[in-house]
Amino acid sequence: MQELFLICGEDDVETVSDALMELDALAVSVEDADADSPSEQALFGEPGMPAPRGGWQRSVVRALFPSVAEATECATLILSQDWAGGVHVQAIQAVAEQDWVRLTQSQFAPVEITPEFWIVPSWHQAPAQAKQVMSLDPGLAFGTGTHPTTRMCLRWIAQHAALSPSWTRVLDYGCGSGILAIGAALHGARNIDAVDIDPAAIIASKANAEANKVALTAALPDAAQGEYPLVMANILATPLRLLAPLLCAHMAPDAHLILAGILERQADELKEAYAPWVKLEVSDSQEGWILMTAKRA
Ligand SMILES: C[S@@+](CC[C@H](N)C(=O)[O-])C[C@H]1O[C@@H](n2cnc3c(N)ncnc32)[C@H](O)[C@@H]1O
Question: What residue ranges define each of the domains in the chain, with the CATH number in brackets?
Fold first, then answer.
Protein backbone atom coordinates (compact mmCIF):
# COMPACT_ATOMS: atom_id res chain seq x y z
CA MET A 1 0.00 0.00 0.00
CA GLN A 2 1.12 3.55 -0.74
CA GLU A 3 0.03 6.68 1.08
CA LEU A 4 -0.30 10.06 -0.61
CA PHE A 5 0.06 13.10 1.69
CA LEU A 6 -1.50 16.36 0.42
CA ILE A 7 -1.30 19.66 2.30
CA CYS A 8 -4.15 22.14 1.85
CA GLY A 9 -5.91 25.06 3.53
CA GLU A 10 -9.21 24.95 5.44
CA ASP A 11 -11.32 25.96 2.43
CA ASP A 12 -10.00 23.12 0.23
CA VAL A 13 -10.18 20.18 2.69
CA GLU A 14 -13.60 18.93 1.70
CA THR A 15 -13.02 19.35 -2.05
CA VAL A 16 -9.66 17.54 -1.85
CA SER A 17 -11.12 14.69 0.25
CA ASP A 18 -14.08 14.26 -2.12
CA ALA A 19 -11.77 14.35 -5.16
CA LEU A 20 -9.53 11.66 -3.65
CA MET A 21 -12.50 9.37 -3.07
CA GLU A 22 -13.74 10.05 -6.62
CA LEU A 23 -10.26 9.08 -7.85
CA ASP A 24 -10.52 5.66 -6.15
CA ALA A 25 -8.52 6.27 -2.98
CA LEU A 26 -9.10 3.25 -0.70
CA ALA A 27 -9.31 5.46 2.38
CA VAL A 28 -8.97 9.17 3.14
CA SER A 29 -8.20 10.77 6.49
CA VAL A 30 -7.59 14.36 7.51
CA GLU A 31 -5.21 15.57 10.24
CA ASP A 32 -3.99 18.90 11.52
CA ALA A 33 -0.83 19.72 9.55
CA ASP A 34 0.28 21.83 12.52
CA ALA A 35 -0.31 19.12 15.17
CA ASP A 36 2.26 19.13 18.00
CA SER A 37 3.63 22.48 16.82
CA PRO A 38 3.11 25.97 18.32
CA SER A 39 0.55 26.66 15.52
CA GLU A 40 -1.72 23.72 16.54
CA GLN A 41 -5.38 24.75 17.01
CA ALA A 42 -8.17 22.87 18.81
CA LEU A 43 -11.16 21.96 16.63
CA PHE A 44 -14.24 20.59 18.41
CA GLY A 45 -17.98 20.96 18.62
CA GLU A 46 -20.85 19.93 20.86
CA PRO A 47 -24.46 19.15 19.98
CA GLY A 48 -26.55 22.31 20.40
CA MET A 49 -23.52 24.57 19.89
CA PRO A 50 -22.53 26.29 16.61
CA ALA A 51 -20.97 23.81 14.15
CA PRO A 52 -17.16 23.67 14.32
CA ARG A 53 -15.12 24.91 11.36
CA GLY A 54 -14.75 22.52 8.41
CA GLY A 55 -11.04 21.88 8.91
CA TRP A 56 -7.83 23.10 10.45
CA GLN A 57 -6.05 26.16 9.13
CA ARG A 58 -3.68 23.75 7.35
CA SER A 59 -4.64 20.10 6.92
CA VAL A 60 -2.74 17.07 5.79
CA VAL A 61 -5.05 14.85 3.77
CA ARG A 62 -3.82 11.25 3.62
CA ALA A 63 -5.07 8.84 0.96
CA LEU A 64 -4.31 5.15 0.47
CA PHE A 65 -3.63 3.64 -2.97
CA PRO A 66 -2.60 0.14 -4.05
CA SER A 67 0.49 1.39 -5.96
CA VAL A 68 2.87 4.37 -6.44
CA ALA A 69 1.60 4.76 -10.01
CA GLU A 70 -2.01 5.20 -8.87
CA ALA A 71 -1.03 7.61 -6.05
CA THR A 72 1.10 9.69 -8.46
CA GLU A 73 -1.61 9.77 -11.13
CA CYS A 74 -4.17 10.90 -8.56
CA ALA A 75 -1.87 13.65 -7.22
CA THR A 76 -1.21 14.91 -10.78
CA LEU A 77 -4.90 15.04 -11.57
CA ILE A 78 -5.74 16.93 -8.37
CA LEU A 79 -2.92 19.47 -8.81
CA SER A 80 -4.10 20.22 -12.36
CA GLN A 81 -7.54 21.39 -11.15
CA ASP A 82 -8.23 25.13 -11.28
CA TRP A 83 -9.25 25.15 -7.57
CA ALA A 84 -6.05 23.40 -6.42
CA GLY A 85 -3.67 26.38 -6.35
CA GLY A 86 -3.23 26.07 -2.57
CA VAL A 87 -2.74 22.27 -2.58
CA HIS A 88 0.66 20.62 -2.62
CA VAL A 89 2.08 17.12 -2.35
CA GLN A 90 4.05 16.46 0.83
CA ALA A 91 5.00 12.84 0.12
CA ILE A 92 4.09 9.47 -1.33
CA GLN A 93 5.23 6.75 1.06
CA ALA A 94 4.92 3.00 1.37
CA VAL A 95 2.75 1.90 4.32
CA ALA A 96 4.71 -0.47 6.56
CA GLU A 97 3.23 -3.97 6.88
CA GLN A 98 1.72 -4.53 10.32
CA ASP A 99 -0.56 -6.97 12.06
CA TRP A 100 -3.40 -4.47 12.27
CA VAL A 101 -5.68 -6.74 14.32
CA ARG A 102 -2.98 -7.33 16.92
CA LEU A 103 -2.09 -3.62 16.93
CA THR A 104 -5.73 -2.63 17.57
CA GLN A 105 -6.18 -5.29 20.22
CA SER A 106 -3.00 -4.22 22.01
CA GLN A 107 -4.63 -0.81 22.66
CA PHE A 108 -7.42 -2.37 24.75
CA ALA A 109 -6.55 -4.00 28.06
CA PRO A 110 -8.94 -5.01 30.85
CA VAL A 111 -10.31 -1.94 32.68
CA GLU A 112 -10.74 -1.97 36.45
CA ILE A 113 -13.97 -0.32 37.60
CA THR A 114 -13.70 -1.54 41.19
CA PRO A 115 -11.28 -4.21 42.44
CA GLU A 116 -14.10 -6.76 41.86
CA PHE A 117 -15.72 -5.38 38.68
CA TRP A 118 -13.80 -5.34 35.39
CA ILE A 119 -14.46 -4.68 31.71
CA VAL A 120 -12.54 -7.26 29.70
CA PRO A 121 -12.07 -7.46 25.89
CA SER A 122 -12.87 -10.91 24.50
CA TRP A 123 -9.20 -11.59 23.61
CA HIS A 124 -8.08 -11.11 27.25
CA GLN A 125 -8.38 -13.30 30.35
CA ALA A 126 -10.24 -11.69 33.25
CA PRO A 127 -7.90 -10.77 36.12
CA ALA A 128 -7.93 -13.31 38.97
CA GLN A 129 -9.50 -10.91 41.47
CA ALA A 130 -12.45 -10.04 39.17
CA LYS A 131 -15.73 -11.33 40.61
CA GLN A 132 -17.96 -9.48 38.13
CA VAL A 133 -16.84 -9.24 34.49
CA MET A 134 -18.34 -7.49 31.48
CA SER A 135 -17.04 -8.78 28.16
CA LEU A 136 -16.86 -5.88 25.73
CA ASP A 137 -14.93 -5.24 22.51
CA PRO A 138 -14.49 -1.83 20.90
CA GLY A 139 -17.02 -1.29 18.11
CA LEU A 140 -19.00 1.36 16.27
CA ALA A 141 -20.61 2.89 19.36
CA PHE A 142 -19.01 4.88 22.21
CA GLY A 143 -18.36 3.05 25.48
CA THR A 144 -15.48 0.63 26.09
CA GLY A 145 -14.89 1.58 29.72
CA THR A 146 -11.68 3.42 28.94
CA HIS A 147 -13.24 6.90 29.14
CA PRO A 148 -13.42 8.46 32.63
CA THR A 149 -17.09 9.42 32.20
CA THR A 150 -18.11 5.81 31.56
CA ARG A 151 -15.87 4.50 34.34
CA MET A 152 -17.37 6.90 36.90
CA CYS A 153 -20.94 5.84 36.00
CA LEU A 154 -20.02 2.15 36.25
CA ARG A 155 -18.26 2.68 39.56
CA TRP A 156 -21.36 4.44 40.89
CA ILE A 157 -23.51 1.50 39.75
CA ALA A 158 -21.18 -1.07 41.36
CA GLN A 159 -21.01 0.87 44.63
CA HIS A 160 -24.74 1.56 44.89
CA ALA A 161 -26.15 -1.74 43.62
CA ALA A 162 -25.82 -3.39 47.02
CA LEU A 163 -27.52 -0.42 48.71
CA SER A 164 -30.35 -0.17 46.15
CA PRO A 165 -31.62 -3.66 45.45
CA SER A 166 -34.77 -2.26 43.86
CA TRP A 167 -33.70 -1.18 40.37
CA THR A 168 -36.81 -2.75 38.94
CA ARG A 169 -36.55 -0.43 35.91
CA VAL A 170 -33.52 1.41 34.52
CA LEU A 171 -33.23 4.03 31.81
CA ASP A 172 -29.85 4.40 30.05
CA TYR A 173 -30.31 7.55 27.94
CA GLY A 174 -27.57 7.79 25.27
CA CYS A 175 -26.56 4.15 25.67
CA GLY A 176 -23.76 3.97 23.05
CA SER A 177 -22.36 0.44 23.33
CA GLY A 178 -24.91 -0.32 26.08
CA ILE A 179 -22.10 -0.47 28.63
CA LEU A 180 -23.99 1.28 31.47
CA ALA A 181 -27.18 -0.69 30.85
CA ILE A 182 -25.22 -3.95 30.84
CA GLY A 183 -23.32 -2.84 33.96
CA ALA A 184 -26.64 -2.25 35.72
CA ALA A 185 -27.97 -5.61 34.55
CA LEU A 186 -24.86 -7.41 35.84
CA HIS A 187 -25.54 -5.76 39.19
CA GLY A 188 -29.08 -7.07 39.43
CA ALA A 189 -31.16 -4.41 37.65
CA ARG A 190 -34.16 -5.56 35.61
CA ASN A 191 -36.38 -4.12 32.86
CA ILE A 192 -33.67 -1.95 31.34
CA ASP A 193 -34.39 0.49 28.51
CA ALA A 194 -31.22 1.54 26.64
CA VAL A 195 -31.98 4.33 24.17
CA ASP A 196 -29.90 6.35 21.71
CA ILE A 197 -30.40 8.61 18.69
CA ASP A 198 -27.72 6.62 16.81
CA PRO A 199 -28.97 3.40 15.15
CA ALA A 200 -25.42 1.93 15.38
CA ALA A 201 -25.62 2.28 19.17
CA ILE A 202 -28.87 0.31 19.24
CA ILE A 203 -27.33 -2.52 17.20
CA ALA A 204 -24.18 -2.51 19.39
CA SER A 205 -26.17 -2.49 22.66
CA LYS A 206 -28.24 -5.50 21.57
CA ALA A 207 -25.13 -7.44 20.49
CA ASN A 208 -23.19 -6.57 23.66
CA ALA A 209 -26.15 -7.49 25.89
CA GLU A 210 -26.39 -10.86 24.15
CA ALA A 211 -22.63 -11.45 24.54
CA ASN A 212 -23.02 -10.81 28.27
CA LYS A 213 -26.23 -12.89 28.51
CA VAL A 214 -28.25 -10.03 29.99
CA ALA A 215 -31.71 -8.78 28.98
CA LEU A 216 -32.37 -5.22 27.88
CA THR A 217 -34.43 -3.29 25.36
CA ALA A 218 -32.33 -1.15 23.01
CA ALA A 219 -34.23 1.36 20.87
CA LEU A 220 -34.63 4.98 19.78
CA PRO A 221 -35.33 7.53 22.57
CA ASP A 222 -39.14 7.31 22.13
CA ALA A 223 -38.95 3.86 23.76
CA ALA A 224 -38.31 5.54 27.12
CA GLN A 225 -41.73 5.48 28.76
CA GLY A 226 -42.91 6.13 32.31
CA GLU A 227 -40.89 6.33 35.50
CA TYR A 228 -37.65 4.59 36.46
CA PRO A 229 -35.90 4.20 39.84
CA LEU A 230 -32.56 4.73 38.06
CA VAL A 231 -31.98 7.19 35.19
CA MET A 232 -28.48 7.43 33.69
CA ALA A 233 -27.20 9.70 30.92
CA ASN A 234 -23.58 10.06 29.87
CA ILE A 235 -23.81 12.53 26.97
CA LEU A 236 -22.35 16.07 27.14
CA ALA A 237 -23.22 19.19 29.14
CA THR A 238 -25.21 20.99 26.43
CA PRO A 239 -27.58 18.11 25.53
CA LEU A 240 -27.87 17.22 29.23
CA ARG A 241 -29.07 20.77 29.95
CA LEU A 242 -31.65 20.55 27.18
CA LEU A 243 -32.74 17.08 28.32
CA ALA A 244 -33.29 18.15 31.96
CA PRO A 245 -37.12 18.26 31.86
CA LEU A 246 -37.34 14.98 29.96
CA LEU A 247 -34.87 13.04 32.14
CA CYS A 248 -36.43 14.35 35.35
CA ALA A 249 -39.92 13.43 34.13
CA HIS A 250 -38.69 9.83 33.89
CA MET A 251 -37.57 9.76 37.55
CA ALA A 252 -39.80 7.75 39.86
CA PRO A 253 -40.22 8.97 43.47
CA ASP A 254 -36.91 8.25 45.28
CA ALA A 255 -35.19 7.66 41.92
CA HIS A 256 -31.49 8.23 41.40
CA LEU A 257 -30.26 10.33 38.48
CA ILE A 258 -26.66 9.97 37.33
CA LEU A 259 -25.22 12.33 34.75
CA ALA A 260 -21.78 12.29 33.08
CA GLY A 261 -20.03 13.89 30.13
CA ILE A 262 -19.64 17.10 32.17
CA LEU A 263 -16.43 19.04 32.67
CA GLU A 264 -15.56 20.42 36.15
CA ARG A 265 -16.21 24.01 35.03
CA GLN A 266 -19.73 23.07 33.82
CA ALA A 267 -21.00 21.93 37.26
CA ASP A 268 -22.87 25.14 38.10
CA GLU A 269 -24.72 25.40 34.79
CA LEU A 270 -25.93 21.80 35.19
CA LYS A 271 -27.00 22.42 38.81
CA GLU A 272 -29.02 25.41 37.63
CA ALA A 273 -30.62 23.54 34.71
CA TYR A 274 -31.82 20.70 36.97
CA ALA A 275 -32.73 22.88 40.00
CA PRO A 276 -36.49 23.01 39.20
CA TRP A 277 -36.66 19.22 39.71
CA VAL A 278 -33.67 17.89 41.69
CA LYS A 279 -30.57 19.04 43.56
CA LEU A 280 -27.57 17.83 41.57
CA GLU A 281 -24.28 17.25 43.42
CA VAL A 282 -20.82 16.42 42.17
CA SER A 283 -20.19 12.90 43.44
CA ASP A 284 -17.01 11.87 41.62
CA SER A 285 -14.32 13.33 39.36
CA GLN A 286 -11.61 11.93 37.09
CA GLU A 287 -9.25 13.68 34.70
CA GLY A 288 -11.25 16.92 34.63
CA TRP A 289 -14.62 15.18 34.13
CA ILE A 290 -17.26 15.03 36.88
CA LEU A 291 -20.11 12.71 37.78
CA MET A 292 -23.25 14.53 38.96
CA THR A 293 -25.97 12.69 40.83
CA ALA A 294 -29.29 13.49 42.46
CA LYS A 295 -32.05 11.67 44.30
CA ARG A 296 -35.66 12.66 43.77
CA ALA A 297 -37.48 13.52 46.95
C1 LIG B 1 -20.59 9.67 25.38
S2 LIG B 1 -21.60 8.47 24.62
C3 LIG B 1 -21.98 7.48 26.05
C4 LIG B 1 -22.13 6.02 25.75
C5 LIG B 1 -22.28 5.15 26.99
N6 LIG B 1 -23.54 5.40 27.67
C7 LIG B 1 -21.14 5.35 27.98
O8 LIG B 1 -21.41 5.77 29.10
O9 LIG B 1 -19.99 5.07 27.61
C10 LIG B 1 -23.08 9.42 24.37
C11 LIG B 1 -24.15 8.70 23.57
O12 LIG B 1 -25.31 9.52 23.63
C13 LIG B 1 -25.95 9.53 22.38
N14 LIG B 1 -26.73 10.78 22.31
C15 LIG B 1 -26.29 12.04 22.07
N16 LIG B 1 -27.31 12.93 22.14
C17 LIG B 1 -28.42 12.20 22.44
C18 LIG B 1 -29.80 12.53 22.65
N19 LIG B 1 -30.23 13.80 22.55
N20 LIG B 1 -30.67 11.55 22.92
C21 LIG B 1 -30.24 10.26 23.02
N22 LIG B 1 -28.96 9.88 22.83
C23 LIG B 1 -28.05 10.84 22.55
C24 LIG B 1 -24.82 9.42 21.39
O25 LIG B 1 -25.27 8.89 20.16
C26 LIG B 1 -23.83 8.49 22.10
O27 LIG B 1 -24.04 7.14 21.75
Answer: 2-97 (3.30.70.120), 107-295 (3.40.50.150)
